[in-house]
Amino acid sequence: MYRFYLNNVDNDYNYSELCRVFLNDDEFETIGIRFKEGSRVCLSDNSYLINCRGSNDANIIKLELLKLLEKLTGKTNEWGTLTGVRPLKIAKKIYDDAGSIEGMQYMLKFVYALSDDKIALLTDTLKYQLEYVKESPLGRIGIYIGIPFCPTRCSYCSFASNVAADEEIEDYLCNLLEEIRYMGELITAHNEAIESIYIGGGTPTTLSSEQLERLLTRCEDSFCVSPADIEFTVEAGRPDTITAEKFEVLKKHGVSRISINPQTMKNETLALIGRQHSSEQIVEGYRLASEYGFEIINADLIAGLQDETLDDFRDSLNKVIELGANNITVHTLSVKTGSRLKESDPEYYRRNAENVTAMLDESRRILYDNGFYPYYLYRQKHQIGSLENVGYCKADMHSLYNIRIMEEKQTIIALGAGAIGKVYYPDEDRLERVANVSNYRIYNERFEEMLSRKNNYYGG
C-alpha cells in the first residue's frame, strides 16, 4: 500500500480523489499532517511526503501529488489535477479572472496540468456558451420533475429508477401532481419567473398518454407558463415507451425538446445491458418524432459499453445523426455503486480506457464535421479512464437546463422522488440543497414531509 503524507493539509478529500484516478481504494492512504521544514522524518517503504515546504496553495500540492502518481503508476491523467464534476465551471472562472482565452489556456496547462486535448475541448465549449448563451437572469428559475420509472433497469444504472406496477405509478403521480400544485403556489407568491421545465427520470414516457396529459396540464396550470416562452423538455428515453398518442400529448402542450436515448444502435449490446427494445424501434421512434415536428431531439450514446468496438460506436453515432438528432450527448460509461455491472465486475471502469478515448476522439471529429458544437460537459466518478460526458448541438439548439445545472448560478426547483433541488444565493454565490427522498415508495409514505420541504426554497 502507498501512503501519502500531505503536509499542511487538513481535508484530504480532493487529494484522495486524485489518487483514485490512478489507484484502487485498497492500494493507498492519504494522511494530513503538520510538518515543519527542516525537521527530520523517517518514512517506511512506499510512503511519501508531499509538500515538505508547507505551501498553502492546494493547486501546488495537487500538482506535486499528480507527478508522483504518474511516476509510480506509469499512467497519465488528461484532466490533470482536476477531479470535480464541473471542469468548465473552473475554466470559466479562470477566463473571467484572466480576461482572455489565452490566459485561461495557460493556467489550465501549467497550473492544472490538463492535456492539450482537454484544454481544446473546454475552450470550444466555453466559446459556444459565450456566443450563444446569455447569463442566467436574476429571479429566473428552472424546474425539474422526476418520473422514477423505467420498463427495465440497465446493467450500469444506479439512478432512482424503478420497474413498478401500474397502481404504484398512479399513486406516485397523484402525489406528484399535488407537489406541483403546492410549489406553483409558492412560486406565484414570490413572483418568480420560470426559464425551463425539464421532466426526466427514469423514463417519463413510462406514463400513459392520459397520465402525461394530467401531468402537463398541471404544470401549465400551476406554473402559469406559456410553453412558447420557456424551454420545455420531456425525456422519451426508451423507444419501447413511445407511441403516437403520447407524442400527440407532448406536442399539444408545447414541449419543444425531447430525448430519445439509444445508448447504442447495436442490438446485441441492447440485450446485454438489459434493454427490451431493438435498434429498429429506435429508428421508428425518430421517424415518429420527425412526423410530429419536435424542434430539438436529443440522443444519448455511451462510449465503453461491454463488448463494443470503435466501429460499433462509430456506427451508432452516424446512425443517430442520420435519424435527425440535433442534440447529442456522448457519455463515458460510469460504473456506479448499486448497479448490476458494479456488483458483477467492480473494476470494469478501470479497463478499456484506450478504446474509449478513441471513441471520444472519433465522436468529436464526426460531430464537428456534421456541424455540431460542444456546449456543456461534466464528469462522474468511476468513469472509464476518468474521462467525461459532452453534450453537442447544432448552433443555437442547446439545452439551457443542462447548462444551468452545470454552471450552478440558478435556483433549480426539483419535484418528485429522487429529485434534488438547489437554491442559489447570488450575493454569496452559493447553493443550498433541497432534496426529496430517492425511493418512490418512501416518497409516497412521507409525502406531507416532502411538501413541507418545498418551503425551504423560500426560507421556510
Question: Secondary-structure blueprint of this entry?
Answer:
Elements: E1 2-7, H1 13-22, E2 28-33, E3 47-50, H2 58-73, H3 87-98, H4 101-110, H5 116-132, E4 140-147, H6 166-189, E5 193-201, H7 209-223, E6 231-235, H8 244-252, E7 257-259, H9 267-273, H10 279-292, E8 296-303, H11 310-323, E9 327-332, H12 340-344, H13 353-369, E10 373-378, E11 389-393, H14 400-407, E12 412-415, E13 420-425, E14 430-435, H15 440-445, H16 447-453
Parallel strand pairs: 1-2, 1-3, 4-5, 4-12, 5-6, 6-7, 7-8, 8-9
Antiparallel strand pairs: 9-11, 10-11, 13-14
Helix pairs in contact: 1-2, 3-4, 3-5, 4-5, 6-7, 7-8, 11-13
General description of the model:
With 460 residues, this protein is an alpha/beta fold. It is 42% helix and 18% strand. The chain has a nine-stranded mixed β-sheet with strand order 10-11-9-8-7-6-5-4-12, with helices on both faces. Strands 2-1-3 form a three-stranded parallel β-sheet, with helices on one face. The longest helix has 24 residues, at 166-189. It is globular and about 75 Å long. 44% of the residues are buried.
Rg, Cα atoms, Å: 23 Å
Helix content: 40-55%
In the predicted model, the low-confidence regions spanning at least 5 consecutive residues are none
Structural class: alpha/beta
Mean pLDDT: 92
Globally, the shape reads globular
Quick one: how many beta strands? Answer: 14
